[in-house]
Each structure stands twice: as structure tokens, then as C-alpha cells.
Amino acid sequence: MTDPASPAASDTDDLTDRLRKAGFRITRPRQIILSIIASQAGHPDARDIFQEAVKQDARISLATVYRTMKLLEDEGVIQRHAFEGGPARFEAAEGDHHDHLIDIETGAVVEFTSERIEALQEEIADRLGYEIVHHRLELYGRRKNT
Amino acid sequence: MTDPASPAASDTDDLTDRLRKAGFRITRPRQIILSIIASQAGHPDARDIFQEAVKQDARISLATVYRTMKLLEDEGVIQRHAFEGGPARFEAAEGDHHDHLIDIETGAVVEFTSERIEALQEEIADRLGYEIVHHRLELYGRRKNT
DNA sequence: ATGATATTGAGAACTGTTTGCAATAAGGTC
DNA sequence: GACCTTATTGCAAACAGTTCTCAATATCAT
């Protein structure tokens, strides 16, 4: 079973293996949803994913999308973001942590990282007697007319 | 009108004047809600405020609480926070900006400020070609057993 | 006191999400 | 491949938080 030398057919195949090993059944809805979040670049919400999924199998339900997102979140496959005034949006968890800048005009999301901010957060929490479990840094702004 | 020397009778009275001058009617529900957010220390949600209000006037409705919170937010009297997985929570806007650390066990909110983080945020947004309209920094953590 | 109209209360409507349940279908076993 | 156990699905109803509709009421200028 453990065959690290074999070239991964695709990320999606890796994922299905991982999920199967975790005891989950790889159902048709799940395959479809996995392929969607693998291809989809941005930060789609449940409805976006549902609409894509329906194209591939008309009988998939929104409830299944939500259930699958929950499962994938628990498994660390995706991350859920609750930006202001809107539905939760999802993003493939590709290792690296990052924060978000949301364009308040278009809803577009720009990702960024800052070691220094991270460090300062730790410092602050520490000073207050807390250890950070997770955090959320969102900048809401509009594009400058340069 | 501008009379900075006169001792303010109370914050609430100042506020009602301000709102009246802005063209709003100072109704009983509004008076009650104002007094609640003036006294209430923490970060109550709409239901908390509603429950307090009902004690003073049993016929106040939750809808009115929501409407009033919206009004007060628009007027800059309060700030609305949407912490993870829960209803919006409100806080009197007392000038100074601050961020929040939320105790994931108790829901308690600790406020903090960091000039340095603020500065870094500006720097990042600037580099990305954006100007920050507002932002949100929330640390979710648990108390350290010192 | 009176009138114009902003505001209210009550409940329906709405959005986003979760859940109960019977029907379906994975995937291990023979 | 057929069979069986049980995880998973689809559907609809339930749910939480919030907003809206609309007739009734109350505020404030006159």
C-alpha cells in the first residue's frame, strides 16, 4: 500500500487515497467536489461549488456539499473562511498559512503573509496569558488609483 | 452649540442630543437601548441587549434592537463584531481602535492594541495597491496554565 | 392640541447552514 | 460477481441570525 516512489497521478488521487485510508468512502459526490476544489482557484462558497457539482451530476444536493466541506475541513484538506457579510468561503489548504485582503468593491481576495505580524500576534497573546489556537487577519480595502 | 467646557451630564444625554440633532427621534426603546450599551461593559449580542431591554419595557421587540444597533453603527456610536460561529456582538465605540483576543473556552473577549501591527498592515496593503477601509484582527486562544 | 411622519411590534420572510430519515451505494468478504 | 453491512446521500424540514412588511403608535415641530 505504501508506495512513496510511485509518481502521484494527481493531487486528487492522492487525496482520495488519504481519505479512503482515513475510513471514508469515496463516493461520486465526493469525487466531484474534490475535483472542483482542486481545480477551482479562488475562494468559492458552498453555492459556487454546488453549482459546479451539479453540472457534473445533476442529483448532487447542497446538503452534501456542506457535509463534504465539513469533512474536508476536519481532515485539514480545506480551510473555511467567514469573511464579512456573506457565506463561508473555502480554499484548498496548501500548507502555507496566509491572511487575506478583501476588495470591498469586487469581493476579490488577495492573499498575503507577514512573518512579523505573526510574531507580534504571538507576543501579544503571550503577554495576555493566552496561547493562540488560530487567528484571523482580514484587511478590507479598495484598490488605489495609482 | 460647541461648548466643550460644560460638564457632560452623562454620556447618554450627550448621545441623545447628538442623535436628535442628526434628525432621529429619541423614542423610549432607543433610550433604553442606549442606556444599556452605555452601562454594559462587555461585548453583548442582540439577544443580550434585548433581554436587558425587556426588563425595562416588556413590549420592546428584538427587531427594534436590531434596527437600533444598525442605526447606532451607522452613526458611529457602536461597533459591530462578527466573531466566529456566533451572533454579532456590539461594543460602544469609544474612540480608540483595538483588536480582540477571544477565549475559545469561555467566549470572553480581551482587547488589545498594537501600533506595530497596524503599521505593518498599512504597509502590506500599500504594497498590494490597496488602501485599507477597515480590518479585523482576531486571535482565538486559550488561557495558559501558568 | 394637532398633524405629519418616523418608529414601533408582531410576525412573516430570508439567508446560510444543519439535521432527521428513508433510500442508496461503497467497499470488504465470500 | 453477488452479498451484506453501514456510511452516505437526497430531500425536506428545522434551525439561527437577521431583515423586512405593514398597520398601529408615538415623537416632535407647529
Short description:
The structure is a homodimer of 146-residue chains. The first copy, chain A, has 146 residues and is an alpha+beta fold. The first copy, chain A, is built from five helices and five strands.
Biggest chain contact: A-B, 33 and 33 residues
Oligomeric state of shown chains: homodimer
Low-confidence stretches of chain A: 1-9
Query: What is the element string of chain A, with H for helices and E for strands?
Result: HHHHEEEEHE
CATH superfamily of the largest domain in chain A: Winged helix-like DNA-binding domain superfamily/Winged helix DNA-binding domain
- Rounded to the nearest angstrom, the radius of gyration of chain A is 18 Å
How widely separated are the two ends of chain A? 56 Å
The largest sheet of chain A, given as strand count, sense and whether it forms a barrel, is:
3 strands, mixed
* CATH structural fold name of the largest domain in chain A: Arc Repressor Mutant, subunit A
Report helical residue fraction of chain A. 40-55%
